[in-house]
Amino acid sequence: MKKYVLLLMAVLTMAILSSCNKVIINKTPIDYVNPYIGNISHLLVPTFPTVHLPNSMLRVYPERREYTTDYISGLPIIVTSHRGRSAFSISPKSEQSDVFSPIINYTYDNERISPYRYSVHLDEAKVEVDFAPSHQSALYNLKFANGETNQLIINSRNGKLKTTGCGVSGYETIGNGPTKVYLYLEAEQPIVNSGAIINNEIHYNWTSAEGQNEAIILGFSSKVVNVRYGISFISEEQAQENLEREINTYRVDDLARIGKDVWNETLGKIEVGGGSESDKVVFYTSLYRTYERMINISEDGKYYSAFDGQVHDDNGIPFYTDDWIWDTYRATHPLRILIEPEMEVHMINSYLRMAQQSKEGWMPTFPEVTGDSHRMNGNHSVAVICDAYYKGLRGFDLDAAYNACKATLTEKSLLPWKCIPNTELDLFYQERGYFPALQPDEEEYVKAVHSHEKRQPIAVTLGTCYDDWCLSQIAKELGKVEDYNYFLKRSSNYRNIYNSETAFFHPKDKDGRFIEPFDYRYSGGQGARNYYAENNGWIYRWDVPHNIADLITLMGAPQKFIQNLDQTFREPLGKNKYTFYSQLPDHTGNVGQFSMANEPSLHIPYLYNYAGEPWKTQKRIRRLLDQWFRNDLMGVPGDEDGGGMTAFVVFSAMGFYPVTPGIPTYNIGSPLFEYIKMDLGNGTFFEIEARNCSRENKYIQSAILNGKEWNKSWFSHDDIKNGGKLVLVMGDKANESWGIKDVPPSGESVNKLISF
Known about the structure:
Elements lengths: L1 H24 L25 E2 L6 E2 L10 E3 L4 E4 L3 E3 L1 E6 L10 E10 L2 E6 L4 E7 L3 E8 L5 E6 L2 E6 L3 E7 L6 E8 L5 E6 L2 E4 L3 E5 L2 E6 L3 E9 L3 H11 L5 H16 L2 E4 L3 H13 L5 E2 L5 E4 L4 E4 L6 E2 L3 H4 L3 H8 L1 H17 L9 E2 L2 E2 L8 H10 L7 H14 L12 H9 L24 H21 L3 H10 L7 E2 L4 E2 L31 H4 L7 H8 L2 H11 L8 H7 L6 E2 L2 E2 L18 H15 L17 H9 L1 E2 L7 E4 L6 E7 L2 E8 L7 E7 L2 E2 L4 E3 L7 E8 L18 H4 L3
Parallel strand pairs: 34-38
Antiparallel strand pairs: 1-2, 3-7, 4-5, 6-11, 7-8, 8-9, 9-10, 10-19, 11-18, 12-13, 12-17, 13-14, 14-19, 15-16, 15-18, 20-33, 21-24, 22-23, 25-26, 27-28, 29-30, 31-32, 32-37, 33-34, 35-36, 35-38
Helix pairs in contact: 4-18, 6-7, 7-8, 8-9, 8-11, 9-11, 11-12
């Protein structure tokens, strides 16, 4: 009998374990998302554990300096600029507390964050907080430790709030004005008293508070206080309408359930199988990050535009903003073309509206809720438009886009961090074909140059060459032959700053002399900005994405190109880390001189494909993903920049990458997963099957694309746009003969790929 009992127990144990395993196997995509990845930075700005629905206007994260800070400042209501600006706050307090600060700092514990829900315990206040967002509204459930009068302090930081009987409404001015964000908040429980906090003193029965950090206080005779609110960039009335349209409950569980479903539907556009649990966490967390921006700020068919300070009808096309194009054109927008094509078209139309509504008519560079902040260098909206068009997206006015992009590239100064008409430096560029540098002992003589960002002449020249190439491709499509020839010729201006003796892009002064002596690691001052931008000469050596073939020619031969690539990953810092990072704090995540932490580096590991050694791309990509992107608090090597870097992770983990937006091709790398299925919409899917894929088996032995043997290290967008399947056979040793004959197109060979 004992024998049978033991056997029965064993069977039950196996059943329980099987059941547990089934739960793990049946995880949904959102269950893999860990918003804490990267919340401690290696050096600069960390990621933030953002709670929001995909591309939604309302985003929040805990108000703290960084993850290691032991207190939070109030409870968030809305983040109005990615990782930058927050509006309003709620501070719960009990009547026993004599603190009447407009924002209360709390130590906290038991914090739990998912993309669709946030909960935390506030230690001193003894309040349990539970939160869930919708698109333009959200809901807080607050549980106090005692049932005596409890209070909420609502602060506008810089604006005006007033009581409404059931809650609060008002606005906050953000940025330097005139943009306002409006709030309408209502409570489920009766308000027993209210007042205003002025200069940290409470004034009961006051019904409004206006100015810097003045607040409204609401009192409740309940242990539980539930509040829901709407947000608007149009008006208080619209904020109320947004709330009433989206939320009809005071239960966080109800709203969180909807949010979880939305996220699963969104992240489920890409299905992965195989790989480790950590690989899936990094993958789906990275995919979640790409949906943090741009944000849809259309409200019931209307939107506020900071580009002219007016409210417009959206005519059925949502208006999107908050985009750092210098970061996102490289991989975030190309990813969206594949899995969110309609949204990408709406974003391009939003660019056009921004240009039309601005007084200059120029395309945006860093469009935000408060307008274009004109950061970094280059005007890369043209790359976004070119890439979308040549991958088949329509629904926007290409001619209008061309005119706005052309005006931007010919009338707007190329100076970094500036939005001004052409200066003498721009006229020099148009005449001589390069942006001039200053000699080390030469003082700046152009007043318009940013005092900190400097001229960045190599970064400006190379970035403009690429932008000009993109514009030339659109010109040719539109039949503008003269413009095509003009901008195509300008796109080769990188040759004017190439130093054939060193095989680097080397700054020249206005007299055409190379700056000497020169160190490609350290010359250029803080952030190398006197010559480059955030990264040094080793990174900008490879910044000719539109004509890699010509770069190989300049370096002499494919083998020399490969040697220079290899040395990029091997070249030592040259000084101790303290000295290196003191000067180049953005140039982190180093492998030799390569920087995994900054966007101009993202395409570099794929360049081996262009010189006939794709196995080195496969090896390098796997190592970089393993070394720098992990499921932990420091699992992102540098500034994530709202999807700019994490889109690289998504693409690379799937096994392909868009090296040159505007050329409708993808370079093949080495997938992390045995199976990938991407939903392209309209019932079409692109699948990748990586047979024998493992941590060791990272090298491609052979391939089949859409049923045909494939011996190329790339494929075109046309190969997959209507669905397709790529089968890779993987092994633990490099097959150095695979993918070497037909290299990815660039330069003149692009014309053979694109039918104009």
